[in-house]
């Protein structure tokens, strides 16, 4: 089915905005979750993959299916071998085919929790192109404090420590040699589209600047409601 696009990053960092632009520029995400109070433009995350694969995988290793606490450690990730990866690949493609995936379709899956399970997904899709969405950890922690479903910590320091765990995951992904590009959504909010355009072209999608500009809503970002 070709190489997928896998979009991840710390929750409240702008993964939904980034995935929305990838969707606008021609990639296909299947049946995706709609807008919520905290993601008013839409989540752009495949509902069935999240509910039927990602969350059960986290539960199966006694970790939080919400990706908050506890998080997977290296010990948990060592338990994922080729059989688990092949099973994951089969489940993902089965879901997408039922939703309309064709052999010539460029598809993506966006999930903040992907970076917590990246070794398994890399084994399942070794040729995937990964987009890591970045945001200053302090801004992420502040957004978590304002977000109702982020419940694991009630202090800024707690959320900062949680964000730094994700930062370590990103570094491990780069060190492992994955095909990775980074996106900092605040640059788009501030009016600079250069980085995002380069990523879209790297993905061999069609850059649709007017539609992208229309999609970006700085007011939502500033209120902390567009940062999942």
Per CATH, the class reads Alpha Beta
Element-by-element helix/strand order: EHHHHEHEHHEHHHH
CATH superfamily: P-loop containing nucleotide triphosphate hydrolases
Specify the oligomeric state: single chain
Q: What percent strand?
A: 5-15%
Q: Strand count, sense and closure of the main sheet?
A: 4 strands, parallel
Averaged pLDDT, please? 93
Reported CATH architecture:
3-Layer(aba) Sandwich
The counted number of beta strands is 4
The N- to C-terminal Cα distance equals 28 Å
Please estimate the helix content. Answer: 40-55%
Q: State the CATH topology.
A: Rossmann fold
Give the helix tally. Answer: 11
**Class per helix and strand makeup:** alpha/beta
Total of domains? 1
How does this structure look, described?
This protein has 228 residues and is of the alpha/beta class. It has one domain: 3-Layer(aba) Sandwich (Rossmann fold), CATH 3.40.50.300. The chain has eleven helices and four strands.
Keywords:
alpha/beta; 4-stranded parallel β-sheet; 4 strands; globular
């Amino acid at each position: 089915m070709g190489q997928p696009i896998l979009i991840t990053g710390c929750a409240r960092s702008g993964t939904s905005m980034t995935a929305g632009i990838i969707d606008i520029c021609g990639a296909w995400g299947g049946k995706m979750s709609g807008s919520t109070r905290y993601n008013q433009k839409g989540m752009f995350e495949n509902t069935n993959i999240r509910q039927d694969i990602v969350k059960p995988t986290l539960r199966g290793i006694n970790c939080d299916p919400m990706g908050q606490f506890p998080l997977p450690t290296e010990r948990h990730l060592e338990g994922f071998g080729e059989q688990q990866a092949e099973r994951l690949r089969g489940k993902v493609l089965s879901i997408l085919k039922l939703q309309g995936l064709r052999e010539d379709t460029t598809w993506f899956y966006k999930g903040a929790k992907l970076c917590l399970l990246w070794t398994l997904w890399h084994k399942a899709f070794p040729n995937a192109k990964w987009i890591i969405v970045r945001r200053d950890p302090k801004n992420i922690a502040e957004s978590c404090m304002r977000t109702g479903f982020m419940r694991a910590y009630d202090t800024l320091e707690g959320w900062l420590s949680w964000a730094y765990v994700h930062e370590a995951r990103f570094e491990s992904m780069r060190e492992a040699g994955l095909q990775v590009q980074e996106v900092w959504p605040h640059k788009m909010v501030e009016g600079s589209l250069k980085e995002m355009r380069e990523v879209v072209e790297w993905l061999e999608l069609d850059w649709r600047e007017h539609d992208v500009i229309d999609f970006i809503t700085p007011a939502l970002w500033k209120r902390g409601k567009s940062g999942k």
